[in-house]
Amino acid sequence: MKTRVCCLHEAKDLRIETRDIVAPKAGEVRVALGAGGICGSDLHYYQHGGFGTIRVKEPIILGHEAAGFVEELGEGVTGLKVGDMVALNPSINCGTCEYCTQGLEMHCTDMIFSGSAMRSPHVQGMYRDKITLAAAQCVPVTGDVSVAEAACSEPLAVCMHAHSLVGDLQDKRVLVMGAGPIGVLCTALAKAAGAFEIVVADLQDVPLNVASEMGATTTINVMNNTTTMAEYAQGKGYFDACFECTGAAPALVSALGALRPRGVIVQVGMGGDTAIPLGVLVAKELTHRGTFRFYNEFQQAVTAISTRSIDVRPMITAQMPLDKAVEAFELAGDRTQAVKVHLMFNTDSAT
Fold first, then answer.
1. Which of 62, 154, 172, 247 has the lowest tally of Cβ within 10 angstroms?
2. Residues ≥6 apart with Cβ < 8 Å to 290
3. Distance between alpha carbon 310 and the CA centroid of its chain, in Å?
4. What share of the chain is helix, strand, coil (3-state, %, to 5)?
5. At a CB cut-off of 8 Å and minimum separation 6, what does 277 contact?
6. Is 47 exposed, middle or buried (0-12, 13-18, 19+ CB in 10 A)?
7. How close are the terminal C-alpha atoms of the chain, in Å?
8. What is the Cα 95 distance to its own chain's centre?
């Protein structure tokens, strides 16, 4: 059996190729993909051939945000049946290292993560019409939701893990820096957690409009409005908590200034080396926490999407068939037009 795949050879060299697909062995399933989201890391691979010290050194099938339908069950698989819609968890932790045994699986020292060039050989990803993988990676999706919604489970899980580190947001003032997919999902989670006020800042109007649909009470285009963030910094700050989703130094500095004493900032965005104003951090007794990937939040994310307790539909701005992968990646990289772009598999049409 053959399947089409979306394979990156080097920066800007994205090809639709054909690969063999094996029958599922014991404990495995074959899934017909329906949708795969283009993530920021996928964009870095496509645009620059990697990010930081992580470089594409051999052809790699991209993609780690995906959902589809079960086609075939291997021996011994329970809890799934042919036809089930499933969200695909891209993480396979070893289960035996010191972090896995401490319940910190997101820090597994031997993590296998789909579509990642961190390991050599690279871990092949999920942008393909059909994939055979461990049944444990397939989480059933219920409810009347689309396969594109289900494919948002992975980024929502990332944001749920970040949310678990910020503390109680009931009746709190929350700042979200950056209105990309992660920023708007953090916005939706803050709304669901009962935040009193949610302010989202970004450089572009399109993602800010999506943030408004997903729960922002106020949005700020910091390109057009250069004073509001400074106003929030008056009187030792305004916000109780912040999700910093850009990884950009100017955004981080603004966020630290806008936080009230003993506020919490969760660093979701990952950039390069960044200077931090330690005087502000110390004098206001702020907590600056990093967050990385997810673990049991993946199941929670699938449940939230299945029930639409978190409605991800506003962030899905385009769906394009696999044979238009290059156009999809170019669109995904244009923040004036798109928030989340999905590749659609096993279909000849886009919506």
1. 247
2. 266, 267
3. 14
4. 30, 30, 40
5. 253, 256, 257
6. middle
7. 28
8. 23
CATH superfamily name and code, 2-156+294-344: Medium-chain alcohol dehydrogenases, catalytic domain (3.90.180.10)
% of residues, the chain, pLDDT over 70: 99
- Model confidence over 121-172: pLDDT tens digits? 999 999 999 999 999 999 999 999 999 999 999 999 999 999 999 999 999 9
Cβ(243)–Cβ(216) under 8 Å? no
CA distances from 134 to 27, 106, 157 (A): 6, 18, 19
pLDDT digits over 220-269, tens only?
A: 999 999 899 999 999 999 999 999 999 999 999 999 999 999 999 999 99
Q: Residue 24: is it exposed, middle or buried by C-beta count within 10 angstroms (0-12/13-18/19+)? A: buried
Which residues, at least 6 apart from 213, have a Cβ–Cβ distance to it below 8 Å?
314
Q: Residue 289 is encoded by which pair of tokens?
A: 């926490």
Q: Are 62 and 125 in contact (CB under 8 A)?
A: yes
CATH class of 166-290: alpha beta
Entry pTM: 0.95
Give me the chain's average pLDDT, please.
95
> Do residues 256 and 233 make contact, with C-beta atoms less than 8 angstroms apart?
no
Q: 53 to each of 13, 87, 147, 272, 284, how far by Cα in Å?
A: 20, 30, 34, 11, 34
Across 129-286, the runs of DSSP E, i.e. the strands, are 130-134, 138-140, 173-177, 197-202, 218-221, 239-244, 259-267
Structural domain spans, the chain: 2-156+294-344, 166-290
Tokens coding 121: 């050989």
Neighbours of 300 (CB within 10 A): 17
Whether the upstream peptide bond of residue 121 has omega within 30° of 0, thus cis, is yes
Are the C-beta atoms of 43 and 11 separated by less than 8 Å? no
At 130, which amino acid appears? K
Q: Transcribe 262-306 into DSSP letters.
A: EEEEEE----S-----HHHHHHTT-EEEE----STHHHHHHHHHH
